[in-house]
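=== How it folds ===
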Amino acid sequence: MKTYNAQNWYWFVAGDRTKVFSSASGDYVPVSDPTFIAWGADGTLPTNIDTEANLGAVLAPYLIRPANASVLSGYTDAQADTVMQHLSMKIAFNHENRIRALEGKAAVTVPQFRAAVKGLM
């Protein structure tokens, strides 16, 4: 069995055993894929994960940007959450609302600001 390597790993998502998500390709491959079969020849099994969003969150700390749109959404959610925790983003949020107040515009909420940050990912 292999040692976990996020750059070259496979996951069964939401119980679907007909395909696996490949971190190397950033997308799903069929379980009949020759590269997947060779990868598992030593008895290593894919990791089970419950949702595509959670898979995206697993890939985010390794900066493995998935090509699959559903997994990408979870990835960018996790990235946006990480960015929003930084002091600089808290300052940017504060300044955004100060500027909006000076312009006579309504303040943005944290979820709106987070969505704008996610859109930049």
In short: The mean pLDDT is 95.
